[in-house]
Fold each of these.
Amino acid sequence: MGSEPGGCALRRFSCELGPLGRPDGSAAFLQGDTSVLAGLYGPAEVKVSKELYDKATVEVMLKPKVGLPGVFEKNREQLIRKTCEAVILGALHPRTSISIVLQVISDAGALLACCLNAACMGLMDAGLPMKSLFCGVTCALDATGAITLDPTAKQEKEARAVLTFAISSVERQVLMCTTKGTCSVEELQQCIAAAQRASGAIFHFYRDSVRRKYSKT
Amino acid sequence: MAAAAEAGALPAEERVGQVVLPGDVLLLPSHPEADGARLWLGPGAALPGRLVCGPGLRSCGAGLLVTKGGLLRHRQPGGAGGGSGGAYWVDSQQKRYVPVKGDHVIGIVTIKAGDIFKVDVGGSEQASLSYLAFEGATKRNRPNVQVGDLIYGQFVVANKDMEPEMVCIDSSGRANGMGVIGHEGLLFKVSLGLIRKLLAPNCEIIQELGQLYPFEIVFGMNGRIWVKAKTIQQTLIVANILEACEHMTAEQRTQAFAKLSER
């Protein structure tokens, strides 16, 4: 259908590992102008009503920039929680809780993907056992079917459909997919392929960030 | 973007000393004859050494799966091991402590309930400490432990399925330095990697600090350090140096010590 831009057209991203002193792990992820701060606590004490006998209870709290968290945030929290649960080895810490608190610092498009990236970096900073890494990639389909990766807020508003994927680092499997708008099955497959290609750049960046953190010690 | 540096499955020896991320697979040198289903007997069969899979690694089909991000380390087996023994582990920086059997930790007594004390060790659950687990304690002669006291002890039970239990005596019944820590001094928290660095043999930081002022120090593997020097000011100085030396290089440390010893 439409042609996609050659290679990955992701905005510039940067990340800071461990900016916060109090949580067990923290990360600040910046994608273009979208910025999210993640704080991780775990494995910590859990209320008896929420404890699971065989694995860790993962909780995600997404705090918007202004106002109280609403239904939109609850929906995003569940998506992020399911992705993290698929990746964290919860069976190693039964009857504990792993809490991820995400604070939106600025939102300029591709917010869910930025939250996923910040959560993954935070999980690594906290030293929680994971079977793979994951990253978030957003695709926007405009009226002609052209795919734009990592859209800005304006591109998201004008797009016919906005799809967000969580891609795992092991064989680029798709962990989570959420769509807003309409698209055909072929377009969905093309978006998945484009997102998988772009995720390579993000995983490369993760590796560089962790190398930089360990080179200081 | 060139993804050439993306590591798929690489042999474990090549990655020692490098940063590994969760999801990386490390291939182990496999013996071509070694087959899981067969048992080779006879004088000609090579005996593979036992490989220990340390923290941050899990064994998967092809080799070892990395579960925590950090530097990969390897230790050769001592003595009559072969080339395929030894231990691999991942050195990662973490703040949260997970109880491990045999670790010596500093805990804070939170509840005194009948026969046991509940001790907060910084993990997901509080550890239980029986009142008989002190040197010279009997049913008539109870130890003098109050809520809020600091305890230095070791874990006898610590796994993911059970509540951790700690004791203040070693296997022969002697205290060996464990027990209630005195009421003065300062307790503060550092990251687990720093504790391991400080407890390594011939750590220069402690030797240099010892030349500055005399002090008493207790390290808990759960990231807690207790310090007591002659005056409160000296105690605070020692505590600040220990907290800061995680982020300082060796030269910055010598500069800081030089500035302090002038005073």
Note: The first helix of chain B runs from residue 192 to 199.
Amino acid sequence: MEDSDMDPEEAYEPSEMFENEEAKSGASTQEDEEDPDMKVDEEPYEIQHQEQILPQRVINLNRDLTTLVTNIQTAADAKESLRQAELEEARRLRLERLEKDLKSSQEIFEEITRGWSLSTQRAIPQELHEALNNQQQLCDGIIEDKKKLINDLQQELKVGDDRYVKDLRKHTEELDLMMERMEDQIKTLIKAYREELTQIERVYTQESEILLTKDKFEWDQHMKGLWEEELKRLTERTVKVEEYENIIHNLMIDTWRKHNIIQTKQHASFQVLERESKQLRIAKFTKAHTRHEIAESKFSLTNIKTRLSGMKKLMANLSDKYKSQRDEFTKKSRYLSEDYKRKIKQYECIQKQLKHFAVADGRKFEEMWLMIDAEVKQLVERALDIDSQICKQHLGVAWERPVMGFMELCGPIQPQRVPQLLHTGQDSQDSQRMMDPSVRKEIEAEGSAVQSESGAEEEEEKLPMETLKRVMELLCDKAGFLMEDTLLKLLIPLGKEEQTVVKLGSLLSYLGIEEKDIPKLAAFLLKYRHQQREQTEDVCDRSGESNNKAEEEETEPTTHLTSDLDPYDVVPALKSFLRQHMRSRESSARQHHSVYEAARDSSEDEAYWQSMGSVICEDQLRLWDTAEHKLRQYQGVLADISALVPETESLQQQNRELRMLLQQTLKVSTDLEM
Amino acid sequence: MSRSPNPPEAADPRQLRRIIAEDPHWLLSTVPSLSNLCLQSIVNRFEERPIWEDLSPVHKDFVQERLSTSMPLHVTANLIHDGVYWKRCCEKWGGIRDLTHYGNSWKRMFFEKHMENMIELFIPDVTEPKTFVEMVPLCKDYIKRLNISQLLPPVTEPQKEEEEYGSELVIENEDGPSMDHFDFNIMLDKLTNLEEFHVVYRVKQCGLNFQCKMFEMTHRDCESLAKAVKSCKTLKILRLNLSHMEDTKCRLLVKYLLDHPSLRELDLSHNLIGDKGARAIGKLLNRSSLETLNLCDNNIGGPGAKALAHALSMNSTLLSLNLRLNRLRDEGGQAIGKALLNNNTLLLLHLGANEVTWPSAIALSKVLVQRSTLKSLNLSCNNLGVDGGKALEEAMSNNSSLTECDIRLTEVEEQSASFVNQVVWTNQSLEQRRHARESKTKKTSTAVY
């Protein structure tokens, strides 16, 4: 019941609820304020313990406040003890009263029991009734007494209850008061401690400031003193240093002088000594030199000797080697010469064989040729025959035997004859016609060149050395582009003639022209110039420049021969010469080989056979074709006719029979008529 | 807790909403990392597969923050170390207390609270004691103090009154369904770390069902408690207050407490212990190593005090004796005063409200003169009178050890009282200085070593 009003805040203080309960249980008590007491006591104690220099004010405050709180507790204790005493007293009184009551009631009870025994003795009903009444009264008295007691006790209980309730209220009030006071105490204490703290802080800060200023001042003073002392010492030191420097300077000068004197003396003595030593050394040196030279020569001699012996050995080695090599080489050369001889023999043998084969081949060829020629000729004859037949019989045209020179020929065509044939023949003419005029000219020139091969020397002679030289120079200048730059560079320092010689050499080697061809080249170039001029005259519509040149050339034809040669034409001329030269060389090479080979010009052969093949010319062939065509037509007509012949014959037969029948019938009819 | 411990109920309203404001971890934008998802699944399936030891400290924290507090204790008790999880458990139980009272351990707080709750709500013959048997091995390592503020009686039948009378009159009659409370025997010996035990045999918030019996311990209760305490070898502090303990029960308890190896403090305040009980306690004083004895608000008279005084004169362990609100009277006071002449250990004596008068004061002032061990003396609410005050004044003038002396409401003269206070204060300051010096020397010595 009492616990229900307990706040959770109070829960932390167990003693409070104890109090409530104890009050109820009636055992006694108020409150065991031990715990708060302890707490409150402990707090300052601890703080005091921590802060030794706690001022008296705070200690007093602590004490006073604590006593203020604990006063309530002690008062409560006192009240409690008083209450206990009262309770005990009341209990004692109650007990006494109860005892008294017990005694009195016991007496009455005894009286009653006595009365009962008396009443048994009495026999008179009236007395008995009296006695009974008396007993009744006594009993009533006892009961009343008891009732009274009970009432008293109940009242006491009520009073006790009321008091208990009052006590409870008082306790709560006291508790509240105590709490309040405790809170106050805490607050005031906190305040006091804060103040104390601030004061202490202030004091400390002040103290520290004072100390700081003091220390600073002291420090400054000390520093000042130190500085002054230092300065003093410094000045003293500088003075002393100067003094010492002077002294040192003097000392130095003294020593220097002394040193100089000593040096001069020593120098003199040294010179004397040196002279002596030089003389001595010269004497020694000469001796030593001679000795040294001897030793050196000896040493070099031995050296040379050893080298000599080494050389000799080397020589012997080399000679040995030489001998062996020589032997080897002689052997080799002998062997090679033998080989060579054998090879020559082989070669000769092969040549003989070649000749033999060539002759055999020629013979075979001739035979073959003749045979085939005969066959072809027969064929030609036959063709001609057929042609003539066609012409005479079918066309009715007079037939002429075409010109056939080759029909008289027999055996293979000889080369010497062929060119002539070509030149004279119609075919060569055609081919010439097809060619470019310039080329033709070239060919002509070639031909002339070829023809003039035999007379080349004469031409050479014709050209004087000077002109030749000039031509060559020109050639070198113009065809310089063919030469390498490096060569040109190398040639720069040389003289002009030398340059041309070297250039010409290199140029000729490039072009593949031999030295003996040079005059030929020169002659060709000159001739080329002439040809060109002829051409220009022929064509007449040349560029002005060339015309001018031509004019120039015309105007001064008598000038030097070489002037004819136009530098611009050198390159094309050279080109053409080269072309020609190559061809001529080939031809010459061919001529060389023709001893064994029937130098057969396959083209000539072909022409020959062609001519054979073309005995019947194109017109003729066409004629033939048309003739064949017509003949075929004619044959077709004939075939038709031949097909119609039997029909006609059958028709004739029928006709004949019919006629016979008619005659018969006529005969009959006539007969009949008749 | 945040992830809805029981999905079928919590899922429905949550699914309908886009933003869940109650969930502090909910965030629309972040995609939870895989490790977090794994941890979440570990948390969700912790009951079937508790994975704990393999986790890294960071992950352990994660799990601790999310693990359901309704997880059965047999899974979590010995697995999860002290930390956020237990804090959350305590919060769930409601009313977090000062953590420093629990050695800064949330786990200890939780288990002590849990056990206290279980005991306080235990109803004899209704609640299965098996639950305790299961619970004890889980929490035995963490419980150091049990503060049981109520013990429920068994459910009473209407015809109970007779038996109440019976038990009141005849203490030996303990047959049949009695008012016995929870039997501590089943668990106290198994709590191997228990050091402090505080029991009150009462019912809180009983309201109109009030019965005197609810605030008493029965004889059998006392016996079982005594046996339990005896079996608990680690116990240091025993508090048994407000439990209507008379001499017989007290003697029974003391009988079992004799030669207890570790008991240091005994608090039997607010009981009904009389002279016989006091005699028994006096016997206990010299058969144990008690340092603090609190018998305040009992019924001890002169003979009991004499017995205690006799024990005190032989004792060398007791430091503090509290006999407040008893009835020692001069007989007891003088006896204690004489006994203290032979005692060298007692520091604190409280004789407040004991109907002591001047002879006892004189006896105690003799002690103050001759002995310098006593530090605190409380004689408040006793009618010491002027003579007593003068005797104390004289004694205090020769004493330099007493740092507390309460003589309020003792009819002492103002002068002597103030003098006594003065001396006490000087003694206090002296004491302080001594302490300071000691602490300094200690500090220096520690610094040296």
Note: Strands of chain B lie at 145-148, 196-200, 237-241, 265-267, 292-294, 320-322, 348-350, 376-378, 404-406.
